[in-house]
Amino acid sequence: METGKFFHNLMERKDFETWLDNISVTFLSLTDLQKNETLDHLISLSGAVQLRHLSNNLETLLKRDFLKLLPLELSFYLLKWLDPQTLLTCCLVSKQWNKVISACTEVWQTACKNLGWQIDDSVQDALHWKKVYLKAILRMKQLEDHEAFETSSLIGHSARVYALYYKDGLLCTGSDDLSAKLWDVSTGQCVYGIQTHTCAAVKFDEQKLVTGSFDNTVACWEWSSGARTQHFRGHTGAGPISNIASSLKSSLIPLGRVSHSPWCFPSKR
């Protein structure tokens, strides 16, 4: 009995396949309008199981991911025709798109070139150039919005600050309160603070500070102790010592004043 039922179902399957072949040939011979009417009629006859099956398969057929299906070289070629803003939008489509777009070195190098960057072709890291581009775009937007620079206040002097000198992350300030201070710009902390004359110009290295004053004198100071190690006089007339021009490792310190001749003083090294 079971054997007969098996052969009966097998014959039904064969009959179905024959019928399906015949209707397929007929369907292919129809016009597009007739095909659409046929599909509409079949859909109207379908139940929940058939409609769910149709929905799942249509999504696969209609929403083909060309970036996933194409060879990587062809994907890169197509991406080259898109502008950077469109590429960034495409990165949001899916993880796969983001992965492919972020791996296209030439696309991001070109985007950086269009912003005026000098490109080192030996660097073939696509993610590096994408980050360079994004950072540049962010900075340009910050410039447009007047938010490109961070500001902070260094609180410590009790009078006007006349002199500033910046080097290697450190800022020296000279004030009318007869003091000079050395600041760590990144933290805002005062590294050294020493008593001086009123400073119109300052210059420093790791061990010492040189100041030019409104009283026509120049002085050298030791950061660690605050002691004045040298004191120079020579300028006369009105106007402060406004410029200290040399490296402090030199044996001479050239000085300048507004509308007066420069002087050189010996420096203890």
Description:
With 269 residues, the chain is of the alpha+beta class. Among the domains are: 66-145, Monooxygenase (Up-down Bundle), CATH 1.20.1280.50; 161-235, Thrombin, subunit H (Beta Barrel). Helix content is 42%, strand content 25%. It is built from nine helices and eleven strands. It has helices spanning 2-29, 32-45, 48-62, 66-69, 72-79, 84-90, 95-102, 105-114, 126-144, and strands at 161-167, 170-175, 179-184, 189-195, 199-204, 208-213, 217-222, 228-233, 241-244, 252-257, 260-266. It has a four-stranded antiparallel β-sheet with strand order 1-2-3-4, with no helix packed on it. A four-stranded antiparallel β-sheet has the order 5-6-7-8, with no helix packed on it. Strands 9-10-11 form a three-stranded antiparallel β-sheet, with no helix packed on it. A hairpin with a 4-residue loop joins strand 3 (179-184) and strand 4. Helix 8 (105-114) runs parallel beside helix 9 (126-144). The termini are far apart. The model is unreliable at 254-265 (pLDDT under 50). It holds the Pfam family F-box-like. Keywords: Repeat, WD repeat. This is F-box/WD repeat-containing protein 2-like isoform X1. WD repeats lie at residues 154-193. Residues 64-111 form the F-box domain.
